[in-house]
Structure formats: structure tokens, C-alpha cells
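Exercise 3.2. Students should predict the tertiary structure of the chain below and write it as C-alpha cells, then compare their answer with the key that follows.

Predict this chain's 3D structure.
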Amino acid sequence: MTGLDDLVVVPQVGTTLPTLEIELTRTLIVATAIASRDYQDVHHDPALALQRGSRDIFMNILTSNALVERFVRRGLGGDVRIRRVKVRLGAPNHPGDTMTITGTVTAVDEGTVTVEVRGDNSLGTHVSGLVVVEPTRRDEGSAA
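Answer key:
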């Protein structure tokens, strides 16, 4: 048994995961940068971000990765092990915008599911790529 049957969404190629909209608040951008120990000033200091050519602070890649992971876990509706995340960043996520993440299952092979993801904001595509997960069985990791 691969665990695929234990997912709320039984994935098939072409399955579209439910859209996830994320408000990009200044607090979200700063707090997640600090939580991931990314102290680069462009993630928390608007004046320095402006000096470096950005219109405002912007989200770091670790937060983008985490939000993509959250989207896939939520979308499949079950416990999954993340096996690979391969994403590319594009337009920055600035405070006051919204990022909408969408995704489609592109492969289901021998116990793994591949989801193509895309996160868009008002400037364009912020993040795009592939996430490969392995569903876990319901009894794995359960307290006895």
C-alpha cells in the first residue's frame, strides 16, 4: 500500500488543487523572514529596501517555499512527506498585495505525487515550480 488511498483528494493527473489566497501583510513578510533567520534588510527595512532598488520590503524565498508546501499539503488533504521542492522566484511579494497559489497534479508514480504550482500577485508570477510528495499511511506516526 502506497498511502495514496489515505489522502482526502485521491490524486489523478489533471486534478486541480483548491486555490489558496494569502494576504501579503508587512507583518507576515517581516515575521517569517525573522523566523527563518533571514536578517537581510530588504525583508524588514523599507528605507534600505528602497535604497537597494525595491519599492518596499519583499518576501524571502524560505517563506515562499513554506507557503507552497502549505498549499500542497492543504490541497491534498492528508499527511504527506515532501520529497522535493523545485521552485523559481519571479515578481516580488510586497506588503499590501495578495498571492494566489494554484496547482495541478502532473504525475502519480509508484507512491509519489507531483504537483505543478504557481503563485501569482499583481505584478505577475511570484513563484512557480514542482513539488513531489509521498503520502504517508494513516497508521504511520500515530501514537499507540
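Discussion points: The two ends are 21 Å apart (CA to CA). The helical segments are 26-35, 46-51, 61-76.
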